[in-house]
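In response to the reviewer comment on reproducibility (Comment 2.3), we provide here a single inverse folding case reported in full, input and output, so that an independent group could reproduce the run without further information from us. The C-alpha cells appear first.
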C-alpha cells in the first residue's frame, strides 16, 4: 500500500493558491512537444477498448486514491473506473504504475488510456489533457480525540472553543484556519499526517485539520481518534471544493464523454456512490455538486 505522505504530490496538500474555489497546484507538468500517439482516435477509442476487452489505466500508488494491495488494484479511482468501464462494455483495467509527475506525460505518449489517480482538476493540467466531470470533492474535516471533548464541529466552533489546531506544513488548511479568524498562536504546523494524529492523541493539538478523505483513511490506523463531519471551507468568500477526476488524452473527447455519462449516473445516486467508495473514506459529503463543472474549473 502507498505511503500516506505521498499525497502531497496530488494537489490536495501543499496547496497555496485558491482561485474561485479551485486550488491551483504549482509545479506544472510539462506537455509533450509533438502530437501524441493515439491522440486523434477519439471517435473510435471506446470501440477499440471494447474489442480488446481492457482499458489501460495509470495509477501513482497513493492510498486511498489508487494503489496496489497484493495483486489487486484498489482505491477510489480504480473502483469507480472499473464500474464505469464495465457499463461501457470494457471489463478489465490493466494497471501501469507511474510516478506522479509522469502521469500526464505518459498519457500523452500513449502508454495508457486513462489516469486513475484522483488527480486534481487545475487549469494548467487542463491545457495538457482532458478531464472527466468531477468524481469527488475534498471537503475539510478535523481529527479529534475519541469523544470529541471540546465538541468541535467546524472552524467557527474551534475558534469559539479556543482550540489549538494542527495543520500540515505548507498546506492550504493553514489559510483556512486563519481565514476563519483563528490566531496564529493557536495553529501548530506538522510535517506529515501521522504527526497530526499523534499530536491529537498526545493532547498537543485539539484538532488536526485536513481533507475528510485523508482523515478518515488515517483514522483506520489511529482508533483513539475520530473524524468530524466534513464541511466546505471558504476563503475570501469562495468555497474550496478541491475536485478531482479521471484524465484522458486530448483527441479522446468521445471516450471522455461516454465516461461522463456513466459517471453522472453514479454521482446522482448517493447510495450507489457511497456503497462503491465508502471503504476508501469517501461518503456523501464527497459527492460533487451537479453545478460544479470541469469546463469552469479548467478556466480557473
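Designed residues, in position order:
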Amino acid at each position: 500500500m502507498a505511503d500516506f505522505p505521498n499525497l502531497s504530490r496530488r494537489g490536495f496538500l501543499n496547496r497555496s493558491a485558491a482561485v474561485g474555489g479551485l486550488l491551483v497546484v504549482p509545479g506544472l507538468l510539462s506537455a509533450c512537444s509533438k502530437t501524441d500517439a493515439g491522440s486523434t482516435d477519439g471517435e473510435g477509442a471506446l470501440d477499440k477498448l471494447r474489442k480488446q476487452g481492457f482499458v489501460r489505466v495509470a495509477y501513482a500508488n497513493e492510498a486511498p486514491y489508487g494503489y496496489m494491495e497484493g495483486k489487486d488494484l484498489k482505491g477510489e479511482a480504480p473502483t469507480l473506473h472499473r464500474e464505469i468501464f464495465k457499463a461501457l462494455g470494457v471489463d478489465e483495467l490493466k494497471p501501469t504504475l507511474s510516478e506522479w509527475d509522469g502521469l500526464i506525460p505518459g498519457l500523452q505518449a500513449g502508454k495508457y488510456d486513462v489516469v486513475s489517480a484522483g488527480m486534481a482538476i487545475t487549469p494548467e493540467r487542463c491545457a495538457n489533457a482532458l478531464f472527466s466531470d468531477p468524481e469527488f470533492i475534498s471537503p475539510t474535516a478535523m481529527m479529534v480525540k475519541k469523544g470529541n471533548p471540546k465538541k468541535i464541529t467546524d472552524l467557527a466552533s474551534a475558534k469559539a472553543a479556543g482550540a489549538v489546531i494542527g495543520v500540515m506544513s505548507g498546506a492550504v488548511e493553514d489559510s483556512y484556519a486563519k481565514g476563519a479568524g483563528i490566531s496564529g498562536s493557536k495553529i501548530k504546523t506538522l510535517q506529515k499526517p501521522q504527526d497530526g494524529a499523534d499530536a491529537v492523541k498526545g493532547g498537543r493539538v485539539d484538532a488536526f485539520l485536513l481533507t475528510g478523505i485523508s482523515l478518515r483513511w488515517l483514522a483506520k490506523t489511529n482508533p483513539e481518534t475520530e473524524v468530524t463531519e466534513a464541511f466546505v471551507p471558504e476563503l475570501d468568500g469562495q468555497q474550496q471544493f478541491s475536485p478531482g477526476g479521471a484524465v484522458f488524452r486530448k483527441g479522446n473527447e468521445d471516450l471522455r464523454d461516454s465516461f461522463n455519462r456513466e459517471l453522472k449516473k453514479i454521482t446522482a445516486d448517493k447510495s450507489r456512490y457511497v456503497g462503491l467508495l465508502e471503504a476508501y473514506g469517501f461518503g456523501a459529503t464527497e459527492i460533487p455538486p451537479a453545478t460544479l463543472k470541469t469546463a469552469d474549473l479548467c478556466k480557473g
